[in-house]
């Protein structure tokens, strides 16, 4: 009998991933009330503003100076998939696209040959706290697609299927689960080819219950991240939160959840199996391509920055919306 568990590892910042994934971070920040200008109604003294990644009072400013988040920065050669379960993210990019998304929405952006974007976390509530829970996943592009045109898409939470049973729910952000398919990913994505069996699932399993994760159809990399709960047991091995589990994709995995409800993120996919050269926001196949990306960004700024501020945020009274590069506006 094949063992279900290949290895267990502690989660850091970022989380360890397997090909075709490059990177995954989990942000959980208990922001205070907003100050009316979408920043925190709290002192910023004692923070390393511009590079505030240390949790202080339950939250971080990241690269933001007045509003938490990540001001404009470039990407090339991969895709970002941003899942906002709680709170909001304001997106702006060099294509002219923009959006405010949250409460379960997902943004899927193909950087391709190059794009700048900003991701800010506006604190919209002035009367109560502003909790943010967010995953950002980097999915690699194969060499043939690293120079495709950038692409921006929103997967609204109303359109993302959730399969519920008596004791579990599975949100299907990418891939197929129990014959239910996720919304289409970006067209040039590694996930767009069903043969690559890319899956991104957010799984909740009730306390003191058992759930069976079905085996994959092909030989893929498969990692289960246990990010909230008390403990679980798989094949007699006990695992606590803040651990990842590399799973054997060829077997069903029985998960026994102890104590509190268990919360998991599953990432799986067929490995691309190409060389990876990384430097900050650029992911290519060779160091020469990295140098070329840096030079092109210095010269072209990947189209420039059409917004008034590097840390651009949208009007406080805006709801959830997406403005696409062709001017199409979708409001929720």
TrEMBL record:
A Pfam family reported for this protein in Swiss-Prot or TrEMBL: Pirin
The protein, known as: Pirin
Family indicated by similarity: Belongs to the pirin family.
Source organism of this protein record: Cellulophaga tyrosinoxydans
Every Pirin N-terminal domain range: 61-139
Domain Pirin C-terminal: from-to ranges: 201-303
InterPro entries, per the entry: Pirin, Pirin_C_dom, Pirin_N_dom, RmlC-like_jellyroll, RmlC_Cupin_sf
Superkingdom assignment: Bacteria
UniProt lineage: Bacteria, Pseudomonadati, Bacteroidota, Flavobacteriia, Flavobacteriales
